[in-house]
């Protein structure tokens, strides 16, 4: 026969064993720290917000792929599929614009054997080695403007690009702006955004039909900046412009641009 004491100890052991199993299952299903894969390579997160954070982290590391799961993710991305995931990329560009901008190709696949599991595969216009060079260069540029006003930092990024770069259709990615001082509009806009990303100033990379530029947030509103056109004109005619005087920059189908609070008038200090 068991004594009362032995029964209590047995109950305690069973309870602790149950709790350990429960916690182990919970950690597998909903990782509190996005980015830690399970034994089968799937990262379980709580929802879309954590998934986006994980994707951003993957892009920043130049990761080739990541497999994510949370309840409902398959249905959600099937909805994105209807417009070729442009809405998802729009959302990603608002939070991590530079890293979304350097994606040269993306494949999204669903594994039927694992419910609510989606794999993202990425190709980039830059290499890991090029990104390391860009990071070192950008940190040196940003250091010069540390402690200055938001306006001065934005202007500093603008002036660096326009004074160090010439338009050259042979150089298509931001690395060549920093390394050779050459590039096309896409290179200009991404290089400008990379500097502002390091400065922690909200900036969106915008692609039109045949051109690329940026939207920058300052004092609560968004303003247009086109470093390519300013470089060719030798002016500030496209610097922190409102929608009323930013002609030639309204041919983007980005839904993010329709949601953000754009200023009608140009920025005044």
Number of strands: 9
How far apart the termini lie comes to 86 Å
Structural class: alpha/beta
Poorly predicted spans:
4-34
Which CATH architecture of the largest domain would you pick?
Roll
CA radius of gyration is 24 Å
Number of domains: 3
Biggest sheet, strands in spatial order? 1-2-4-3
Order of helices and strands: HEHEHHEEHHEHEHEEEHH
Mean pLDDT: 85
The CATH class label of the largest domain is Alpha Beta
Shape: globular
Strand content: 15-25%
Q: What this model shows, in words?
A:
The protein is an alpha/beta fold and 269 residues long. It has three domains: 1-29; 31-124, no CATH class; 128-259, Roll (C8orf32 fold), CATH 3.10.620. It is 47% helix and 17% strand. The protein has ten helices and nine strands. The strands form three sheets. A four-stranded mixed beta sheet has the order 1-2-4-3. A three-stranded antiparallel beta sheet has the order 7-8-9. It has a two-stranded parallel ribbon with strand order 5-6. A hairpin with a 4-residue loop joins β7 (203-207) and β8. α4 (86-101) packs across α8 and α6 (150-164) packs across α9. The longest helix has 26 residues, at 4-29. The protein is globular.
Task: Please name the defining characteristics of this protein.
single chain, 269 residues, C8orf32 fold, 3-stranded antiparallel sheet, 10 helices, 9 strands
């Amino acid at each position: 026969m068991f004594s009362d004491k032995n029964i209590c100890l047995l109950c305690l052991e069973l309870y602790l064993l149950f709790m350990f199993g429960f916690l182990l299952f919970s950690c597998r299903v909903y990782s509190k720290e996005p980015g830690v894969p399970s034994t089968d390579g799937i990262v379980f997160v709580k929802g879309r917000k954590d998934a986006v954070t994980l994707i951003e982290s993957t892009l920043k590391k130049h990761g080739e792929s990541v497999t994510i799961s949370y309840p409902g993710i398959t249905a959600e991305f099937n909805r994105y599929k209807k417009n070729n995931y442009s809405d998802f990329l729009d959302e990603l560009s608002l939070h991590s614009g530079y890293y979304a901008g350097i994606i040269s190709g993306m494949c999204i696949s669903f594994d039927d054997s694992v419910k609510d599991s989606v794999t993202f595969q990425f190709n980039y216009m830059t290499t890991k080695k090029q990104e390391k060079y860009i990071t070192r260069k950008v940190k040196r540029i940003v250091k010069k403007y540390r402690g200055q006003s938001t306006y001065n930092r934005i202007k500093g990024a603008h002036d660096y690009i326009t004074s160090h770069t010439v338009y050259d259709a042979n150089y298509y990615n931001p690395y060549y702006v920093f390394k050779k001082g050459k590039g096309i509009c896409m290179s200009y806009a991404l290089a400008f955004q990379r500097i502002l990303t390091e400065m922690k100033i909200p900036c969106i990379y915008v692609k039109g039909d045949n051109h690329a530029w940026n939207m920058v947030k300052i004092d609560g509103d968004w303003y247009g900046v086109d470093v390519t056109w300013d470089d060719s004109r030798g002016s500030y005619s496209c610097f922190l412009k409102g929608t009323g005087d930013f002609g030639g920059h309204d041919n983007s189908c980005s839904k993010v641009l329709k949601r953000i609070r754009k200023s009608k008038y140009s920025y005044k200090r």
